[in-house]
Specification:
By secondary structure, the protein is an alpha/beta fold. The protein has helices at 2-28, 37-58, 60-71, 77-106, 114-117, 121-124, 130-154, 177-201, 204-208, 213-216, 221-227, 230-241, 245-248, 254-264, 320-328, 342-351, 365-372, 380-386, 404-410, 436-450, 481-500, 557-564, 620-636, and strands at residues 283-289, 304-305, 316-317, 330-332, 335-336, 390-395, 415-417, 458-463, 509-515, 532-533, 535-538, 546-548, 552-553, 587-592, 595-600, 603-608, 613-614. It is elongated.
Length: 637
């Protein structure tokens, strides 16, 4: 009876810990979504099967040792199980705490991708003040340690018969050892063996239904994510990321997926229905703006914000300079990012590549090795170099972070200038590197003094950084910290363009300005407007101005630019020239770790990978196209 009581107690304790972890997730992130007590109860019930699977895995070893104690009653249970239980529970609680803490910033469940970013802890800490990180990490470790200690003390030292008073062993009824083993086996061993089979086959999500389908189609995908057990999600993602790309998403027959994608990505798009530039060899400057989604751009339907010192009255435009220059140039009003992070957005623009929910191409050594050998992904700087351009990338931060420098070099940038190359004083730096005013100043000097003297056409890439956590900027126009950081970047951009437009370099120049991705400000990944970004072109070599209301993806920038320059883009299979007569099916495709979205002129479809369901209004045709792009892009990877 002691053995059965111990196993049931341990199982219930671990299950309760998992349920409390889900409550902590909901409470910590309560500002992200509205939910009721009924929603909380439903979330717990939906997550219970997943919690049961993980708990069953943890108690597998205690069950085995409890069975063995029927044969050897003096087996030292606590001495053997103590370290195991403490370590496993400590790791599980650390994953649980990290999941709900990081969800506040990332808006998706913690998965195996975190290990890639952990290689640069110094850069990761730039997103938040050190006091924030220390306090969260400290509390998480303390809670994990305490939970592990409790489990250890729940485990008896052994199941040997106790002693009666006077030191004599108490008289025990003769028990059948095999009968003692039956109850623990019947109670828990099938659950543990079931989990072993599930994870072994790599079907954990499908067999335990990681998120109930009925939940996913409701308005609040946040609750669906809350229902997912973070440990099971981490284990599954570690398994998934190790699978061959072609096997990760098999949603239809390969021929069917290929045929559907061929209609969406036509090969012949090198013709032009309109010419944008005064020359086929303009100098090119691309400005990649950190995190500036359309939510901060009023002319794209974005929000306003309250000015500093004004608690009432009319709010102000967050990015007036972006709006002003959009009106002066060629403005793509329906431009969308392909992903949610800079590493993926950069690859989409430079290589004309779609993004992947489970893969960051910039972080894949095999991808970069192929590029360094002149194979694999195409790249805009390599193509322009062959056309006679000199190329350079200027970045006010550390170019080695997340393999960025290696990717840019493999992509064909002949020179990469990081923070150590552009003379930035210590007082001019923030957590990520040079603030935007300093970085733009260095860019202006480089373009007007060095590049302007070159006889060959040139291409320079540039990325801003200040509109990023922790939002500390030397500027205070708006009351709220996040919009104010974007207002600062907007201010720096406006000053830069105003100065540049008054120089001789402007006459032969086109400046392509776009965001690398959006930011979840008053919106969520399940809203396709998260991916809506500014994209516009200005410059003295620009012949056409006005609004272009055609859907265009970040990945289409490469083909669209090359087509205007009469340079072939056939080697960019996922990039489309939006000014081609064959661009007859405008759509955008974007991804984030737990889903993908496809938007066309009729609406959008969103596919949640965690539940395997569509979380948008049904549209069978568009849903088939989305699944085809998801599958075919992975098979081509």
């Amino acid at each position: 009876m002691k053995r059965t009581t111990y196993l049931i107690t341990l199982f219930c304790y671990l299950l309760t810990t998992a349920l409390i972890g889900r409550l902590a997730f909901l409470y910590y992130n309560r500002s992200l979504a509205f939910f009721t007590v009924k929603d909380v109860i439903k979330t717990e019930l939906l997550g219970l099967p997943m919690d049961t699977v993980i708990v069953s895995a943890i108690v597998f070893l205690p069950v085995v040792l409890t069975l063995l104690s029927c044969l050897w009653p003096r087996l030292a249970m606590r001495r053997i199980l103590g370290p195991y239980l403490w370590l496993v529970i400590f790791l599980a609680l650390c994953i649980t705490c990290a999941d709900f803490i990081m969800y506040e910033h990332w808006k998706f469940k913690l998965d195996a991708s975190i290990f890639a970013y952990m290689s640069e802890p110094g850069e990761m800490s730039s997103s938040e003040p050190m006091s924030y990180l220390v306090s969260r990490i400290g509390l998480s470790v303390l809670a994990a340690c305490l939970a592990g200690v409790i489990a250890v003390f729940l485990t008896p030292k052994s199941f040997a018969p106790g002693k009666a008073s006077g030191g004599k062993r108490s008289v025990q009824k003769k028990e059948n050892k095999w009968l003692l083993a039956i109850v623990p086996v019947l109670c828990l061993l099938p659950l543990a063996l079931g989990l072993t089979g599930i994870i072994g086959e790599g079907l954990a999500f499908r067999k335990v239904q990681i998120a109930n389908k009925n939940f996913s189609v409701h308005h609040n995908i946040f609750l669906s994510h809350a229902a997912v057990n973070p440990v099971l999600h981490m284990v599954h993602s570690m398994w998934l990321y190790r699978q061959p790309a072609s096997e990760q998403f098999r949603l239809m027959e390969r021929k069917e997926a290929k045929a559907l994608c061929t209609s969406l990505f036509p090969v012949e798009t090198e013709d032009l229905t309109d010419t944008l530039f005064t020359t086929t060899r303009p100098n090119i400057l691309t400005l990649q703006i950190e995190s500036m989604g359309a939510v901060f751009v009023e002319s794209l339907g974005g929000e306003q914000a309250q000015a500093t010192g004004k608690m009432s009255g009319e709010p102000e435009t967050v990015t007036p300079e972006v709006c002003r220059w959009m009106a002066r140039g060629l403005n793509f009003t329906k431009a969308y990012a392909t992903s949610f992070r800079t590493d993926r957005g950069t690859v989409s623009v430079v290589s004309g590549q779609l993004s992947f929910p489970t893969v960051s191409l910039m972080m894949e050594d095999s991808v970069l090795t192929l590029m360094e050998q002149g194979k694999g992904l195409p790249a805009l700087p390599t193509t322009l170099t062959k056309a006679g351009y000199t190329t350079c990338y200027l970045y006010g931060g550390n170019p080695d972070f997340m393999n960025k420098g290696r990717y840019l070099s493999a992509a064909g940038y002949q020179k990469i200038l990081g923070i150590e190359d552009i003379d930035v004083k210590e007082e001019e730096r923030d957590g990520w590197g040079a603030n935007d005013s300093i970085a733009f100043e260095r860019l202006f000097t480089y373009v007007t003094e060095k590049k302007a003297k070159e006889q060959h056409p040139w291409y320079v890439g540039f990325q801003t950084m200040s509109s990023h956590e922790p939002w500390d900027v030397p500027y205070s126009r708006l009351w709220e910290q996040i919009p104010n950081a974007f207002a600062y970047t907007d201010h720096c951009l406006g000053q830069f363009l105003d100065r540049l437009s008054r120089t001789e370099a402007w006459d032969k120049l086109i400046v392509v300005i776009f965001a690398d991705h959006g930011y979840p400000y008053h919106q969520f990944y399940d809203n396709p407007e998260f991916f809506h970004i500014p994209l516009f072109i200005v410059g003295g070599a620009l012949k056409k101005t006005g609004d272009i209301n055609t859907l265009i993806s970040q990945s289409d920038i490469a083909a669209t630019l090359l087509a205007q320059m009469n340079i072939s883009h056939r080697h960019f299979p996922w990039s489309r020239n939006v000014f081609s007569e064959n661009y007859t099916k405008p759509f955008i495709y974007a991804s984030y770790p737990s889903g993908v979205v496809l938007k066309d002129n009729r609406g959008f479809s969103m596919y949640d990978l965690q539940s395997g369901t569509f979380t948008s209004k049904p549209d069978a045709k568009r849903e088939e196209l989305l699944k085809a792009v998801l599958q075919d892009s992975y098979e081509n990877l």
